[in-house]
Amino acid sequence: MGTLSKHFYAATRDKTCRDMLHPGHTCWQAGQVYLWQGLIGAMRHYLPGAVTALLFRMNQWDDPRVWMNFVAQYARCIVAGLPMTAGSFHFFCGFYNLLGRFSAPFFVFIPSFLGACTCMFLPRPIVRAQGVGLLNMYVEFLIRRVRGRTAETLRTSRLIGTIMFGVFSAAMMGALQYLQIDRVWFANVYKESVTHNNNKEDCKIRYCSHHPTKPCWQHILIQVKRSFYFGLAICLIKNALPRITMLFSSPVSFLRAIASRFDYGLIGFFTGYKALFEIFNCCLPTKVSSITRSSIAGFFAGTSYYFFPNYLLFTYPITELMEVYWLVYMRSDLPKPALARFIDRLPVVLLAYAFSLGMMYHLRVVYPYYTNRYCHKLMNIGTTGRSEMLARGYAEIMLGYK
């Protein structure tokens, strides 16, 4: 399909948006359907993100304000997401009718990019989480697209992937220790604490923050249990939400589907990462510097990737490292040219979200074999099946069936 896209201009010479996107309906009739289906798509698309944010506040569920905030943020996501789930297809028809025929790289990208421009009204954690996910999918596309024997070996070798993920993890934990911040990662670094001895401030790293109240083995066991429960919750949300209607129509089939499609490897990754990180943080000599300690622990914790080799998991630290090391650079004493200060003021998260969304819709339609099934499912859920219809219409035109 990617090769055929070079002939898109000639193939669509006598075609309209009705042939590709809404056969059997005029643009006005299709627009009404888009609005209703976009509302349903927004409800389904933003529910996992809202529920995941709620999971991080599990210990505050007895507070009514937590649930009120959840409902308010979810409603805000639905309203602000309508231009993406519904408006992007209105933009498609308008763009096609106003500007006429156009090349394949723009016939999906521009309408989707315009539909994502209202992401500034979405809650920032949702924008960041989904923007990172979409950008990771684009990085995965680039990895899949690279040709050559070396690239093929890197794609298929679990051992090489595990070592590379360990290196990424070591770089991430070392940077987080330097910055002394917590991010959405698989473990948290130890913070610096200030103690007063003989009226002198002595800044120390709390390598074992549990001492003297708990021994190391008990602390590690508690952290591993928390990580296991978190991974279990993620797996349940991932498998249960797309099949929630089966719970009412066929509970037995629902339970069978959950059990058969459960990601035990993902739970093993979450549990193994946390366990290895805490073990090495407790066991390494105290003479080791805090950044070196976190880097070593992060590398060995990253070897748990072997339990769950996955493209999305592999690309996640790549995009995170770009942002974290930019923070390291901006907080360092290195010179900051005017260009760096200008880039630092840009709304990079919003631009990355809009660009990645437009690009993923484009790749889903034009390069379907280089995008994973998760991307197909995500686009299908958010658009209530219209992305599949658009991809099918595009393929039929390019193959000469229309």
Automatic annotation (TrEMBL):
Keyword RNA-binding carried by entry: no
Coiled coil stretches, renumbered: none
Record bears the keyword Metal-binding: no
Record keywords: Membrane, Transmembrane, Transmembrane helix
Transmembrane segments: 34-56, 77-98, 104-122, 159-179, 342-363
InterPro entries documented for this protein: Tmem135
Protein origin, superkingdom: Eukaryota
Listed name of the protein: Transmembrane protein 135 N-terminal domain-containing protein
Taxonomic source organism: Culex quinquefasciatus
Gene name of this polypeptide: 6047701
